[in-house]
Amino acid sequence: MSRVRIVTDSTAYLSEREVEENGIIVVPLVVNFRNESFKEGETYTNEEFYQLLRGGGVPTTSQPSAGDFVEAYQRIAEPGAEIISIHLSAGISGTFNSAKTAAGMLPELDVTVYDSLVTSSGQAFLVREAARMAAEGASKDDILTVISVMRHHLRILFMVDTLEYLHRGGRIGGAQALLGTLLQIKPILYVKGEIGVFEKVRTRPKALAKIVDELVNFCTEKPVEKLRVAVIHVDTPDKARDLAALIEEKFPGLPVQIDSVGPVIGSHVGPGTLGVAFTVVP
Q1: pTM of the entire predicted model
Q2: What architecture does CATH give domain 155-280?
Q3: Residue closest to 146 by CA, chosen among 163, 161, 128
């Protein structure tokens, strides 16, 4: 077993196989919906949850408690072990702060809590690389150096069907939501620390074309094997496959992962959300 252990939260949306094969510990966030609370990744599949969401109701989400992280860290607290705990952006969730609090409660353990500044596929890129390096025996400092370079280059660009979910969840200002509704603007949004507007366009096809252009500009002249690209979607798998095929056509040999976003992030951006995450490994 590697001396460095990797912890993350459920919004990285890793597969069960990835988690098991790489010894990653996942601490789930919680969804509160229709008088029911459940841990993300349990109770409902993504498809089942979004079917319920389309039927009406306003879900809320909450971060894991510090106690949840204490339990996770203690579970892997072997002699000499070092822990890197990688989480969704502190600008959109209190998860990072819960993990920091937990680490402070365990001074006998070597825990580094790391803010990915993003979520979903972007967060997963960092977790996967950290786990890969840990399995190969890399030091904690070397792992942190590499994922920090990846984080620097990391971009997530996406578009939503409606700004309603972001507005009511408090993740975007009311004026922005109203503007988009009144003018039928389809803004391209980004995540880097917080959610913001990258560019305002009038139609969904134009927004998609701009996102692809940004990706092409980033990928050009970079070694394919060093690129990490994923298509992110919320309950729109057909459009995600079409977008992935378009990207692969432009960059033959580039593997493009298709990631379904789960209930926690999906509750805040809404069904129909589509985007891309990309970075490069140094």
Answers
A1: 0.94
A2: 2-Layer Sandwich (3.30)
A3: 128
